[in-house]
Amino acid sequence: MSLLAVRNAMRILTDGRRTFEVWIEDLVLGPGMRKAIVGPSGSGKTTAMDMLALASAPDGCDRLVLQETGRRPVDLLRYSAGRLSRVRARRFGYVLQTSGLLPFLTIGENVALPQRLAGRGDRREIRRLLAALDLDVPLSTMPSELSVGQRQRVAIARALAHHPDFVFADEPTAALDPASAARVMHLLTELAAQRGAAVLVISHNVELMEAHGFEILPVHFTTEQDRSWSFIGERVAA
């Protein structure tokens, strides 16, 4: 398993008139951890997750390291885009707000995709995951044949199919009713825990996150006439 540590990572967004800075001051994700970024819409939560998931390079960063058990830390800031892509494929899983399933692939093919990208294939694992998620449907089923809640459960299976060290979920229950949201979060956290994976979630629902054992990382959001800042975490920069 691996640990991801980030310190003073920042991203600057601008439209030519306004500037928006998103800061992650000090954050560690390790085996079994559950953390939730909670804040208002437009406060940079997804931008912060993109930096943590190595999908978007920070404009500045003091520390961004990955440490495997028993090995020396690796400085990801020195990695090329190609090497970062390989790290993401092997170690990271994703659950998007609207599942993000590819509509032209069956659910079996969707779940198998990250396995293929990670250079491994295990059809039995796909069946085990879908069964654990209470999805008693053929692997040949198309996403369009499923309900919204079922598609989110397939997305969870896809995120976990290649045994990632980290699972990132961007508002995974926003489109669900309260009962379905609670069920999806229960399944996500339980299956991730069985594999020792860390889970980082973006959410507006503090109560749901706390009910499933997440540490809340609040967003401290400040805005002025032509400039805004967001600080992710417990501490606010001076």
Question: Can you walk through the features of this model?
Answer:
The protein has 238 residues and is α/β, with parallel strands linked by helices. The chain has one domain (2-232): P-loop containing nucleotide triphosphate hydrolases (Rossmann fold, 3-Layer(aba) Sandwich). The chain is 32% helix and 28% strand. The protein contains seven helices and ten strands. It has a ten-stranded mixed beta sheet with strand order 5-4-1-2-10-9-3-8-7-6, sandwiched between helices. A hairpin with a 4-residue loop joins β1 and β2 (19-29). α5 (148-160) packs parallel to α6 (178-194). The longest helix is centred in the C-terminal third of the chain and has 17 residues, at 178-194. The relative contact order is 0.21.
Helix-and-strand structural type: alpha/beta
Outline the low-pLDDT stretches.
none
How many separate domains make up the residues?
1
CATH topology: Rossmann fold
Q: Report the β-strand fraction as a percent range.
A: 25-35%
Corresponding CATH architecture: 3-Layer(aba) Sandwich
Helix count from the secondary structure assignment:
7
Listing every helix as H and every strand as E from the N terminus to the C terminus, the arrangement reads EEEHEEHEHHHEHEHEE
Largest sheet: number of strands, sense, barrel closure = 10 strands, mixed
As a percent range, the share of helical residues equals 25-40%
Summed over residues and divided by their number, the pLDDT gives a mean of 90
Distance between the termini: 34 Å
Largest beta sheet: strand ordering: 5-4-1-2-10-9-3-8-7-6
